Each structure stands twice: as structure tokens, then as C-alpha cells.
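TASK: fixed-backbone design
INPUT:
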């Protein structure tokens, strides 16, 4: 096995299942962050967010490369088949670039959200409230509970998480 191979945590709940790469941080807004070099973060959306949005129709960024940006600042938008959403910075620092591959191959957003379908990169610090893959499973539980109209049972551990190393 390759020493640099990424491990993942499998998650299944209701009609949704995914594998969460454990080499990333995750936000409550269903974005992932991967440190590509010290202080350089690549950001995309999670499979959960991609499923809620549907296939990418169009997207855009309202910031330019090298522009300073702050945590939670509106930086762009995504229009997808099921929904339209704003894109907010999940850290503090300087916007580096959007994903040039999406200009010519927008399907990468839909079929490879954890790989070639990433959205943007920034130089700086991630949101300190971002969590690891195990922590993100708890955020998924809360989101699915909300969708299903249930009260989240915060004191009970989820029974349907399967972790693999």
C-alpha cells in the first residue's frame, strides 16, 4: 500500500452514503479544505452538498486572484440543477485562484467533488471551527435530522457510521 494513500471514513444514513477523505477539514457549510502546501488550502464541496445542489449549471467568483478575503466573506456563487447557492470563504487570507479545469470540464464538479472538482484555493488559515472527517459525520447527522424534520439526539452516538483505515 502506498504510504501517501488517503484513508476515508464511510458514512451511511437514510438514503445517503459517502466516503469522507480523512486528509481534510470540513465546514458546517459542507465544504472541505485540504492543505496542499503549508498555508495553501484547496476548497471544494462535499458529496452531501453536491447531492443537495445537483448537477452544476454555472458558477462564478466575485473575487480576483491575490485579493485579501475574510472568514465568511461572499466570494462567489453556484447555480446547479436543484438549487443556487452563494460560496463563502472558509478561512482568512488571500484568494489564489478558482479551478481552471471547471471552465472546460464542469462535470468534474459533479463526478469528482473530492478530487478534480474542487472550487478554489486560498492562502491563509482555515476556519478554526472546521472539523476532521469524524467530526463532519456529526454535522451530517444534524443536517439529515433537519431535512427529516427530527430533533437531533445530541447525547446519543450515531449507530450507522463505519470507519475504515
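OUTPUT:
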Amino acid at each position: 500500500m502506498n504510504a501517501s494513500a488517503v484513508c476515508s471514513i464511510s458514512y451511511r444514513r437514510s438514503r445517503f452514503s459517502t466516503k469522507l477523505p480523512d486528509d481534510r477539514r470540513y465546514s458546517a457549510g459542507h465544504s472541505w479544505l485540504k492543505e496542499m502546501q503549508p498555508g495553501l488550502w484547496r476548497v471544494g464541496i462535499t458529496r452531501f452538498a453536491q447531492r443537495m445542489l445537483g448537477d452544476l449549471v454555472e458558477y462564478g467568483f466575485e473575487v480576483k486572484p491575490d485579493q485579501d478575503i475574510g472568514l465568511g466573506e461572499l466570494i462567489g456563487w453556484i447555480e446547479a440543477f436543484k438549487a443556487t447557492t452563494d460560496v463563502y470563504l472558509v478561512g482568512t487570507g488571500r484568494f489564489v485562484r478558482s479551478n481552471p479545469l471547471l471552465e472546460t470540464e464542469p462535470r468534474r464538479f459533479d463526478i469528482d467533488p473530492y478530487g478534480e472538482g474542487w472550487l478554489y484555493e486560498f492562502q491563509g488559515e482555515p476556519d478554526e471551527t472546521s472539523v476532521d472527517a469524524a467530526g463532519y459525520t456529526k454535522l451530517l447527522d444534524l443536517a439529515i435530522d433537519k431535512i427529516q424534520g427530527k430533533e437531533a439526539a445530541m447525547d446519543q452516538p450515531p449507530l450507522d457510521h463505519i470507519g475504515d483505515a
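COMMENT: The helical segments are 47-53, 101-104, 107-111, 133-147.
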